[in-house]
Amino acid sequence: MDLDDLRRAAQSDPSDIDLQIRLWQARARIEGPDAYLEPLRDRTAWGQTPHAIQDLVIDEVEGRLEGFERIGTKNWLLQSFSVEPSKGLPPNDTILVERRLEHRLPTFRHKLSRMEFNLIPGEHDIEPILIGRWPVTVRQYSILLEEKLAKNEGEEVGDPMVGLSCSAVQDRLNSHDFRLPTNDEWVYTCDAGSTDYFYWGDNFDESYIWHQENCSAMRESVLVHEKRQKWNAFGLVDMLGNIWEWTSERSSHMKVSEECRGWSFRSSQWDIEQARIPNLHAPVELYSWREVEEEWSADDIGFRAVKSLPPRRSSS
Fold first, then answer.
1. 226 inside domain
2. Fewer CB near the terminus (10 Å): N or C of the chain?
3. Residue range of the domain that includes 209
4. Nearest-angstrom CA–CA distance, 211 and 265
5. 135 and 11 co-located in one domain
């Protein structure tokens, strides 16, 4: 069969996995190796892709990565509940509605730093990426820095690295072929497909977020929410709360030049919930946006690493 015949046959029998695999492989031979990643281009399409083809795509990504090891593939499930008006019952009655978000994604570990990354499918103008499952920790950064950092009083295993300017972070990440997420990438990976205000639902739930009222006057270990499985539907923890996270965007405003997102342990529940209310100065889509001066650093700003998908390695 030629490619058009394969397409027609695959469309007429989508349950034939062998036929779907043949089509996927034929497209890659004709269109080039990037066609192997086509199922990753769209989050919804990725969820509808048979697991057998997902596994082949994951194998393709693994073959492109140097210095990484795959540690597993998992269905990252997030259940949320919301109270909504009932239909067909008395007008003041409400019902509890369950929502489920689930993505089957692999986790890769950077062998040198031991940072863990999940492979995230793209959506619209956002390309597939690997992003850290939690902010870079002090220990991981010290490995990237190639020198042992002095341990501060009260510091715990898994504490995120803070106190670095955006440019310093970018320089260190770039030297290891990593980078910061863009604003769009950060928002997309934070929401993880959720249309609720928070990635866990519409209501504030402090079991997911470190903020001023539920933690000590300093950052918390990323391992706490990891052990409690308080991740979003992409398997990422502490996307909101604990520390602000640098993004790679430069603000267009006159008085600021860098942007970070996500709230921190100094943010109050009131501040976070009030930011849901849109106004002319703080539209709702910027609910976790903070602008700072150039070369600014603080003990509640850290960062999360991103790895762009590299081209296929030469077989020679």
1. yes
2. C
3. 112-308
4. 4
5. no
Count the domains in the chain. 2
Q: What is the pLDDT of residues 279-301, one digit of tens each?
A: 444 433 434 555 556 677 888 99
Residues 116 and 215 in one domain: yes
128 falls within a domain: yes
Q: Residue 104: is its pLDDT beyond 90?
A: yes
Residue pLDDT, tens place only, 152-169 = 554 567 999 999 999 999
pTM over cut 0.90: no
- Cα–Cα distance measured from residue 172 to residue 37, given in angstroms and rounded to the nearest whole number: 28
Residues 46, 155, single domain; the answer is: no
